[in-house]
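Q: We require from you a single protein entry containing the residue sequence and its fold in C-alpha cell form, and nothing else.
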Amino acid sequence: MSFTPNEENSGDRLNRYNGGSYDPTTNPLGFDDGGNQAGVFTAMLKDVVTFGRGVVRVTLEALAAMNTTAARFEAAVAAIKAGPVSSVNGQIGAVTIDLSTISAEVEEQLAEVKAAQADLVAAQAGLLDDGIAYTLAFGN
C-alpha cells in the first residue's frame, strides 16, 4: 500500500506549483509571466489527477486489507463462540481476545484514511479555485 514513483513525483510537484513569475530555470512551476502559456497549469491538473488516483488506489487497498483482517477476526470469534477451540490461525491453547483493543486499532486506521481523503478533497478544491481564478485573470 504505497504510492508508485509517478504518483509520488506528482504529489511532490503539487507542493511546488506557485503563483510566482515563471522562469524555465529558476521557477519552472510558476504560473505568472507566461507560466500558463508554458503549460504549467495543464501540467498541474495532470498531477492532481495522477496523485488523486493514487490516493484513491492506496485508500482502497488499505480498506481491502482492513476488511480481510476484520473477516479473519470475525471467523476466529465465531470459532471461539461455537465451542471448545483447539486452534485459531494455527495456534493451540487458550484464546483470550480483548475486542476493545482491536476495535480501537481498526477505528484509528479508518480515521486516518478518512482524514487523508478529507485532506485530498480540500487540496483539490483549493487547486480548482486557484485554477479558476488564474483562468479568469489571465485567460487560457
Remarks:
- DSSP finds three helices and two strands in the chain.
- The radius of gyration is 23 Å.
